[in-house]
Write a structure and sequence with these properties.
Layout (H helix, E strand, L loop, with lengths): L47 H12 L10 H23 L4 H43 L1
Helix pairs in contact: 1-2, 1-3, 2-3
Length: 140
Amino acid sequence: MPPSDVPPPPPATPQTQIVGQQTAPSTAVPHTPGLQPQGVGVAGQTNSLAIISLVAGVGSFFAHIIPGVGGFTVALVAVITGYMARNQIKQTGEQGMGMATAGMIIGIVHLVLIALGVIALILIVVFGVGIAFLGIAARH
């Protein structure tokens, strides 16, 4: 086919676009000024879960006076939030790795102390009951 037989391309007409309508989305996430998408941190910002972990770890020693909550629950919160904070910090580059680690360690130490206390209490009760029965049996 000779070049003169090729039909010319149709003239470029501007496409009508309605205000607020896009031909292709520019981003999958809507833009909200002043807010950051979840999971994205600022390098100079301290991770909030790290702060919660440290506060819960220290507070767990004083939380035994709160009925229904107790130090065990608060220490468990410190360990879990510390673990979550460390994972977030690795992904986002935020500050607070030391606080998250300290909160985890304090929470774990408190949980171990609670476990040792429960074991000691059980042993005291078992030996106390045993001595009481032996004392009763020795009298008869």
